[in-house]
Amino acid sequence: MTSAKTTETAIALTATLGLAAASWVVAIPHMIGMDMGVATELGSFAFFVALWVVMMAAMMLPGAAPAVVRCAHAGGRLRDVPLFVGSYLAVWTLVGVAVYALYLPHESFTAGVVVVAAGVYEFTPLKQHFRRRCRESVRSGFEFGLCCVGSCIGLMLMVVALSIMSITWMSVITVVIFAQKLLPPKAAIDVPLALAIVGLGILIVIAPSSFPGLTPPM
After folding, report:
1. DSSP for 112-155, written as a single string
2. pLDDT reported for residue 4
3. pLDDT at 8
C-alpha cells in the first residue's frame, strides 16, 4: 500500500509539473511581440481566454503541486487528480473572463496605483487567511482555486496592470507565488516584500520612465 501511494504521488507530481512546464513552452511563443506595457491589447476573447488558461497553468500549477499530492492521498485514486486540476484551472479561467471584460489599455499612473494596492493587500488579514487556507487540505480543486485567487489576486493584478503579456513580469510573479505557496508566512520575508511592492508602485507613479517597456515608444 505504501509503495502504491508513493507511486501515485510521483505520478501526480510529475504530471502536474510536466503540465506546468509544457504550458510555459506553449505560452512564451504566443506572448512574444505582444508586450506593449500598459498599452497592451488583449486580442479576441477566444484567443485571450485560451492563452490565459495556459498562462495560469504555467504560473499556478508549480505552487499547487502540494495540494494535488494531498488530493491523490486523500481520495486514494489517481483519477481524482485531473478533476482537481481541471476545476482549479476553471476558477482561474473565470478570473480571466473577468479580466477580459474589465481590462482597458491604461496609463502608467493607473498601473502604479494598482501595484501600490497589491502591496497593501499583502498586509491584510484577508490575504493571510487565504494564504493559510492554500496550505491546508481542501475538498476540491474548485475550493482550492477560490483560496488561491484570494491569496494571489493582488499579485496577479500587478501582472495585468504592468503588462499582461510580459514574460518578465509573469516569471517574477510566478516565483513569488510559488514561494508563498510552499513557505509558511514569516514577517521577516513578507513585510519587506510587501513594502517593496508598495515602493515599486510609488516609483511607477512618480517616475514611470524608470521602467523600460512600461509605456510603448511614441
Report:
1. HHHHHHHHHHTTSHHHHHHHHHTTS--S-HHHHHHHHHHHHHHH
2. 62
3. 77
Question: Rounded mean pLDDT of 88-109?
Answer: 97
Higher pLDDT residue, 56 or 3?
56
pLDDT of residue 74: 73
pLDDT of residue 1: 44
Rg, Å, the chain Cα set:
18
DSSP state letter for 37 = G
Backbone φ/ψ region at 85: left (φ over 0), alpha (ψ -120 to 50), beta = alpha
For residue 117, what are the CA distances in angstroms to 46, 131, 197, 201?
A: 29, 17, 9, 8
Q: Report the distance separating Cα 197 and Cα 115, nearest Å.
A: 7
State the burial class of residue 212 (Cβ atoms within 10 Å of its Cβ: 0-12, 13-18, 19+): exposed
What are the Cα distances from residue 64, in Å, to 12, 131, 175, 178?
11, 12, 13, 8
